[in-house]
Amino acid sequence: MRKTLTRLVPAVGLIAATVVLGAPEARAGAEPSMEPSMEPSMEPSAEDFAAYAEEAFASSGLPGLEVAVTHGDEVLLAEGYGTDSRGEPVTEHTPMRLASVTKSMSAYGVMNLVEQGEIDLDAPVADQLPEFSMADPRAEEITPRQLLDQTSGLSDRDIDIADLEESQSLEDYVSRLEDDGLSTDPGAEWAYCNVNYNVAARLVEVVTGRSYDSYMKEEVFGALGMEETTLSAAESDPPKGRNELFGVWIEREEIGGFLDHSASGGAVSTASDMGRWLVSQTGEGPVSQDGLDAMRTPGEKEDYGLGWGVDETEGGRTLLSHSGNLFTSYAAHGVVPETGYGFAVMADSALLTDDTYTIMEGLIAVSEGREPALPEGDGMYQWVLGGVTLLAAASGAVGVARSRRWAEARTPRPLWAAALRCVPLLIPVALMLGFRGVITFLTNGRHVTWEQLTYFSIPLTVAVFAAGLAGLAVIVARVAGLVREHGEQRA
To answer: What InterPro entries does this protein map onto (predicted)?
Structure first.
C-alpha cells in the first residue's frame, strides 16, 4: 500500500497526486501474523540497514530523516539524519509528524477495547454512540469495523470537510455530521476518508469516559513505552516542516485544521518510539496476536484491513503498511510478518515525490537479500517545472512586447476574426482559473483549497500560474493593440 505521490510527473493528468492526504492504494494480501517463520537466506546485519539508510538519505536530497528497523522484539536501527528546520541535528529523538500512519495506531487502540468487550466491531456505531446521526438514515447501519476498514459509505465527496476542519473537539466534529449523507450503502464500497477514524475516536471517548488523547497516551503509547509519542504537535513541539521550490527549502507551518488530538493523522513520534511500536506488532503489547491478525485481514472490497494496507513485497512476502502525508511532512511504516521485520521512515519535509515509502521499500529489500533501490528525490521535477516557469515568463514578455506588431499585421481583418487568433492562449488561462477544480476532480472529490496548493505542490502551482498569467497578459496586450489599430484606422 502506498500513495500515488511516488511517481509524479509534471503533467496535468497527475496533478492530483500532489494534494491527496493519506489516501493509500489498497493491495492484495493474506491474513498474516507477525511471528518470524521464514528468514532470508543471508540475514542482514544492523550495519547493512544503517549503510543503506545513510546512502538513501544522501540520494533523496531530503534535509531531515528518521529511520527505524526492527526484527522480532529487537530494534536493529533507530537513527536520525540531517538537520531540522531549527538547524539542530536530527536524532532518533527528534519529534516528527506521522500523518495517516496514525490510523494504524488508532485501530490498535480500538482493537484493545474490542478485546476488553467495551466495543463491538460489528454492532451499529449508533447503538454504541447515540450522538452519532446523519441526514442519511443508512448511517444507522455503520459498524466500527466499517469505519476502520474504510467501507462505511463516508466519503469526502458528500461531506462538508471544510466545516469539519473547524471543529474544536471530537464531540463537535461528530455533531457536524448531522447534515451530511453517505456516498454508498455501508459495506458496499471502499473509500479512504479521514472522517471514519475520527468518528471511531469519539466512540472511544464515550465508551471509556476519557478523552481520546488521554486514552491513547495511557493505554497504547504508555503501555508500549512510547514516551515520546503524542497526538498533539503543540505538546511535542516538532520542528516546522519544509517544502521545496526550485531547489530552495522553505520552512512552513503545517496547515491548520482538525489535526491535533485526531485519530486520522494527529500523532507525532520519533524513530526511537517507532521502534517500540514496530516491536508491538509481534504481539508484545496489550492487543493479542488474534487481535493483530483480525486487524490484518483485508476487507472484501479492498486489500485494506483495520488501519493497515495489505500488499506483497517484491520478494513475494506479505507487507502490511500505511503511508502518511501532510503538507509539510511524510511518513511510512510497514511490517513483513513472515520474516518478522518492521520498518518506519519519517521526513520533516514534503516534496513532489514521497521518498519515505521508497526508502522503506529499500529497507525491505535489504531484509530480503535483494538489491535495494535508492530514492531519486524530486530534483528532476523541480528543474522541469522551473524551466516551464521561466519559459512561460519569457514567452509572455516576448508576446507582450510584440503585441503591437502582431495587431498591425492583422488589422485588415475584422476585429473578431483577429481576436479569435488569441483563443489558444486561453488554454493556460483556463487551466490556471480551474486549477483547484481540476485537482478536486482528479482526487475523486477530495476537499482541496488554494492554500493547500501553495505547499508541497508549490512548484507545480507556480508553473501553472506562470503559464496562465503569461497567456492572459499576451491576450490583453494583443486585444488592446487590435482595438487601438482599428480605432486609428477609423480616425
So the answer is: AmpC-like, Beta-lactam-related, Beta-lactam/transpept-like
Task: Give CA 372 to chain center in angstroms.
Answer: 24
**Would you kindly state where each structural domain of the chain is located, as residue ranges?**
12-367, 379-490
Grid cell at residue 16: 492530483
Under a CB-based contact definition with an 8 Å cutoff, are residues 57 and 65 in contact?
Answer: yes
Q: What is the DSSP letter of 299?
A: -
Torsion over CA: 190, 193, 197, 203 (sign): negative
Q: Please state the three-class secondary structure of 377-403 as a single string.
A: CCHHHHHHHHHHHHHHHHHHHHHHHCH
Q: Which three cell numbers stand for residue 283?
A: 504481539
Backbone angles phi, psi at 379, to 5 degrees: -55, -40
Number of other residues whose CB lies within 10 A of the CB of residue 384: 15
- Structurally, at CATH architecture level, domain 12-367 sits in 3-Layer(aba) Sandwich (3.40)
Residue-level pLDDT at 9: 34
CB 377 within 8 A of CB 459: no
What pLDDT score was predicted for residue 491?
A: 56
Distance from C-alpha of 442 to C-alpha of 462, rounded to nearest angstrom: 19
As a whole number of angstroms, the distance between CA 352 and CA 333 comes to 19
Q: Give the residue from 200, 186, 177, 181 showing the smallest Cα distance to 152.
A: 186
Q: How far apart are CA 247 and CA 173, in angstroms?
A: 39
Q: Are 173 and 202 in contact (CB under 8 A)?
A: yes
Helix (H) or strand (E) holding 334, with range, is strand 330-336
- Predicted pLDDT at 39: 46
**3-state DSSP assignment of residue 275:** helix
Instruction: Give CA separation, 481 vs 44, 412, 414, 476, 491, in Å.
Output: 71, 13, 13, 8, 15
List, run by run, the mean pLDDT of 10-residue segments along the chain (491 residues).
36 38 36 45 89 97 97 97 96 97 98 98 97 96 98 93 93 97 96 96 98 96 97 91 94 90 96 98 94 94 95 93 95 97 97 94 96 93 95 96 86 74 91 92 79 93 97 93 75 56
Hey, what's the torsion of the CAs at 459, 460, 461, 465, to 10 degrees? 100
Strands (DSSP E) along 238-295, which ranges? 241-245, 248-252, 268-269
Q: State how far the Cα of 43 lies from the Cα of 48, in Å rounded to an integer.
A: 10
What grid cell was written down for 488? 486609428
Task: Report CA torsion sign: 238, 81, 319, 286.
Answer: negative
Nearest to 16 by CA among 420, 489, 435, 475: 435
The torsion defined by the Cα of 267, 271, 275 and 278, in degrees rounded to 10, comes to 40
Phi and psi based region of residue 238 (left: phi greater than 0; alpha: psi -120 to 50; beta: remaining): beta
Counting every residue written for the chain, the total comes to 491
Residue 112 in contact with residue 220, Cβ under 8 Å? yes
